[in-house]
Amino acid sequence: MDSPADPPRRGRKPKSLSAAPKIGKQQSALGSTKSTGTGFQLLSGQTSLKLPAENIISGNHGSIHEDEQDAPETQSSESGNAAKSITTLSLPAARQEGDAQRGPEEFKAVNPAPPRLAWKTMVRPAPAPSALKVACCLLMYFLVHTVCLIQGTFMECQPDGNISHRFHRSCASLIRGQVYCPHCGEEASHAKEVTIPKPDCVTAVPTAAVPAHKRDTALMDRAKVDSVTVGGAIDPAKESLESVLNALEDGKYKKFKLPPKQLYFSAKRGELQRILHMLVEGVDPNLRMYSEKRKTPLHCAAEEGHKEICHILVQAGANLDMCDAEQRTPLIYACENNHLETVKYLLKAGASTGHKDMRGSTCLHLAARGGHTGVLQYLVSMPSIDVNCKDDGGWAPLTWATENMNLEQMKMLISVGADVQIRDKEENVCLHWAAFSGCDEIAQLLLDKRSDLHAVNIHGDSPLHIAVRQNQLDCVMLFLSRGVDVNLKNKDGETPLDCCSINSKMWTILNTNKKLTDARRDVSRGYEDVPVTCVNGVDHEPCPSNFKYVPENCFTSQVNIDENITHLQHCSCKDDCASSSCICGQLSMRCWYDKDGRLLKEICRDDPPFLFECNHACSCWRTCRNRVIQNGLRVRLQVFRTERKGWGVRALQDIHEGTFVCEFAGEIISDGEAHVREYDSYMFNLDNKVGEVYCIDAQFYGNVSRFMNHLCEPNLFPARVFTKHQDMRFPRIALYASKAIQAGDELGFDYGDPYWQIKKKYFRCQCGSAKCRYSETILGQNHADSLVQDNLCRDTASFILSPRC
């Protein structure tokens, strides 16, 4: 026996097996060696070690006694081997001084060999473990490729973290208070206790008709035939699950010895019975495959659309919202691959609809991007879904549907509240993407839903710029018919005409339109800071030019107005005039503007108070909040031709409630002059209580407000405001938004009952409102009621008509 002081030698032969192969010739196949701190050499790369058991273990070795016993044959579910042999061997080890002699021990290992169970036993004194023991290739083969102990409770030793082997607790060596593994000699105080249950001895159904070398393929084919693919009703098919449970109860699959990762591949292939068997055996349903982006079996089943497998995994405890390496949930995969039934099941099982992947996309984004209308329709029916959620690029589901030119999906999303004005990170609206893709039907839908035709992105490009640059003629013609501004410049100073080749068909169309619209592109002729365009898509009536555009009130006769600056009441505020100490605010009872220059909601709409804005005698900044209408027009408006009311005015942008829209400006005339003039449709009574009564006549001098029609349900209301002077006879009439106004809405205010007392004899209201008070139907009904009342009362008293200017 070697001395403990002798260094370990790799070339030594096992004393017990004279026919064992030499180690020196197999070193390259076994891999490199790893040395521990105590000199113990452990072979690495053992997982690639493939030594033929028939050549290593033989029954004709010296000092080995063979006691062969017959054992019942068993059938392996995967390899098809008919039997296994259990081999017992003992290997030499170095002895240390003071080690007590130990009794005979035997080491058992399971090694595949057909077709009998042979017990080969060698009895000899087992040496005590040593830290200097050499692990020969034969020992390493049996430690790696065999299960040394097949049932009971054992201690599991892992000398380097990759190799594990087991030993009985009573077999451990106790040297100087330290516990050592009887196999490798390593210190085993940290060994884990494991329990291996007794294997079930139920015999599987014989397959006599299948040759031994084809049994594995036959079993796999049978599993594929028995597995159930997803489809049909929302709930998993009862018949399929019952057949699987019956197969398990019959014991057909109890002998499968599958690795845990097989659960992932079986979920991908739809092998329901095999999955159920593995779950019964205790495989974790949330097992991650790190080589497959950290997906779980539920990810695979949802991606392939295996609804029944999803149900089995969820019932086994699979996490519905577990994310893979790309932060995707099983629901996201089901939506992306258009598996509607699987989507329905996962949502009913409680999957979250708001989870985002690494790109910020939700399941709704992926359904819209893939054009999966059925999945999209089901998702938008969920109460928790957000149809306007954005991904990391700022794209909403409606943006994806627009870019993919899916008209049906767009109608569906808009019907459930999708915002057509939503912008991405580059400030593009959906109309930009419709122009880019060239789908005029989608562009028409967006315009009908009040999308802004003049919206610009961060580059200053309008949808017309995009359509011209992409040579989308249909979209260009549509935009031109909607009155688009062909002179709008982007940040590079380019008009749409500059974005196409000279003398091309696109250039000719734009140039012709430009010549036709230059004269009427701005009704104000530059007097307003915001151009007021004029379009006619109804008839051939030219843009009105029979008046002089004035941004403020004017006089055509001598009128004395007190504009003496020393007579003005003014404030000395150092802030933005929001405090109660502001003199101008006190004149108005308070400052009625908020920080955005909008009227507060508390103000009376039917009879608003006089508003005194800060004037040029005040000490406050010109930018204080109490200066609004003196800043002029700030809202984009358009004069357009209506079907039955002549010219009208509409908003080209969304307007918040309380926003100043425009001033009713015109020629200030006296009440006497108003009665002399024949045409009084453009008059507005100033309704001053002091001195002579005056009116504003916008027939010959006026601004954009002269084209505003009467609305029985108005979206504007007037208020009297004083800015440059405080002469109570001549207030300025400001029109404010009485409610939120969307782009494309016609603007109008209530002309009042005195106006209609006169005008109803000549025409009827054409506002089209359900609450219209002066339509043909309502006036006819009122006339019939008055005749009945006259017949009842027979009152001959006369009355005096006092029309209001």
UniProtKB/TrEMBL annotation:
Residues 25-49, 72-82 have a biased composition (Polar residues). Pfam families: Ank_2, Ank_4, EHMT1-2_CRR, Pre-SET, SET. Transmembrane segments: none annotated. Its main location: nucleus. The keyword Methyltransferase applies. One of its GO terms (biological process) is methylation. GO terms for cellular component: chromatin; nucleus. Keywords: ANK repeat, Chromatin regulator, Chromosome, Methyltransferase, S-adenosyl-L-methionine, Transferase. Residues 569-632 form the Pre-SET domain. Residues 1-82 are annotated as: Disordered. It comes from the Eukaryota. GO terms for molecular function: histone H3K9 methyltransferase activity; p53 binding; zinc ion binding. Residues 635-752 form the SET domain. It is found in: Chromosome. ANK repeats lie at residues 293-325, 326-358, 359-381, 393-425, 459-491. PANTHER family: G9A, ISOFORM B, HISTONE-LYSINE N-METHYLTRANSFERASE EHMT1. This is Histone-lysine N-methyltransferase EHMT1-like. The gene is LOC107690686.
